[in-house]
Amino acid sequence: MYTTLGLPAFYVVVHFTEMPLENVFIGGATRSATEKPFVRVVITHIAIRAPDTDAAYRGATARLDRILNPHLLNKGYDFEYHVDETERRLWKINGLVPPRSGSEEEKVWGRENRAGVYEGGD
């Protein structure tokens, strides 16, 4: 999804953290091992932001639904997701300020699939 927008693939980081049932509370109650699994997905957009329009947000959630539903909804899991949009100016990778979106420097990062020193990246 994100590489089709021109972003380097390594900008996408996924953490899978399984929680013991006794540490998950939904509506104040824990789930039993016989209930449907519950999956919570947290997505943080930093490199780019969606335009601040209802149509853009609906489009973004529709794309996320197409990605997530085969793995969650279609398997009968209960799940929830949300997207945070973090201020890009507060972001660094390996001590470097990421290049401007769409810049030649970002294209180099994309081709190399890693952060690299560039002029202005301090």
Automatic annotation (TrEMBL):
- What ranges does the record give for the region Disordered, renumbered to this chain? 99-122
Query: Transmembrane segments in this chain: where?
Result: none
Ranges annotated as biased composition (Basic and acidic residues): 102-114
- Which InterPro entries does this entry report, sorted A to Z? Cis-CaaD-like, Tautomerase/MIF_sf
Where the record annotates domain Tautomerase cis-CaaD-like, the positions are 1-114
Return the protein name. Answer: Tautomerase cis-CaaD-like domain-containing protein
